[in-house]
Write a structure and sequence with these properties.
Helix content: 40-55%
Number of strands: 4
Keywords: Kinase, Metal-binding, Transferase, Zinc
GO molecular function: kinase activity
Shape: globular
CATH architecture of the domain at 23-84 and 130-230: Up-down Bundle
Strand content: under 5%
Order of helices and strands: HHHEEEEHHHHH
Pfam family, one: Mob1_phocein
Structural class: mainly alpha
Protein name: Mps one binder kinase activator-like 4-like protein
InterPro entries: MOB_kinase_act_fam, MOB_kinase_act_sf
């Protein structure tokens, strides 16, 4: 039995933003832009005329989470508890924020161990294997972005909720960083088709979502196509309104970054 050909399943005609009339018009427009030309990350990130840049960032973060789920499927072929028992990116070790609880046994993944603050006085976080960290991070980001408490509307963003953008982007970046340093072939294969990291980096630099000191993937060592995309935007060195603390390198300190 032959399977149906789905090659053109998502090739809907491009519809301009002024032709869309719904609460989800920006999401639909962004997805239409991606289908039209995913390589042109500058055009994808550019704010449409007359639109709110805070809502535009929100839609991008939602879309990044959606597409990163597809990336995780590719990553799972070689990233598991045996190959990557800790969430690392080169010498950086990241601790999962999904397990902050006072119990001596983690209720989410009892097989894992807790990690202490440097003063060894407070039990704060569970050290997941890399793939669990990635899944928990995506689950947490998606839950937050779909929370009616923090994001009750798709047409305006409450001022107090803006602080979550940097936290979400910083944690999503770690997924790319782990893949680049430890699963380079999977990273480059997916990136050469999706240009997802190039888009993420362009978005982060344009809106100062991730501090430049936390960008640990060297632009010059990316594949030639992706490198051209990310080099189109110069690194932004201006401090963001909400300053994030850089993770502490394990090479210089015993502490790890949450």
């Amino acid at each position: 039995m032959m399977l149906p050909n789905f090659q053109n399943s998502y090739q809907w005609p491009f519809i301009s933003l002024d032709q869309l009339d719904s609460s989800f018009s920006l999401q639909e427009y962004l997805q239409a832009l991606i289908r039209k030309d995913r390589e042109n990350v500058g055009a994808l990130v550019a704010l449409p005329p007359g639109q709110d840049d805070e809502v535009w960032q929100y839609e991008h973060l939602r879309q990044l989470c959606l597409e990163l789920n597809h990336f995780v499927v590719q990553l799972e072929t070689e990233c598991n508890r045996e190959t990557c028992p800790e969430m690392k990116a080169e010498e950086w070790l990241y601790l999962c924020a999904a397990h902050q609880a006072p119990q001596s046994v983690c209720m989410i993944c009892p097989a894992q161990r807790y990690t202490y603050h440097s003063n060894m006085a407070k039990l704060v976080s569970c050290q997941c294997c890399a793939i669990d960290y990635i899944v928990h991070t995506l689950d947490g980001a998606s839950t937050l972005l779909n929370s009616n408490r923090f994001f009750p509307s798709r047409i305006s963003i409450p001022e107090p909720s803006l602080k979550h953008y940097q936290s979400i982007a910083r944690r999503l970046y770690r997924i790319f960083a782990h893949a680049w340093f430890h699963h380079r072939e999977v990273f480059e294969s997916y990136e050469n088709e999706s240009f997802l990291y190039a888009r993420f980096l362009h978005l982060s630099r344009q809106y100062k979502l991730v501090s430049q000191q936390l960008i640990i993937i060297p632009d010059g060592k990316l594949s030639s196509t992706t490198s051209r995309k990310v080099s189109a935007v110069s690194p932004v060195m201006v401090a963001s309104p909400i300053t994030e603390t850089a993770p502490v390198s394990l090479a210089n300190d015993t502490r790890a970054s949450e």
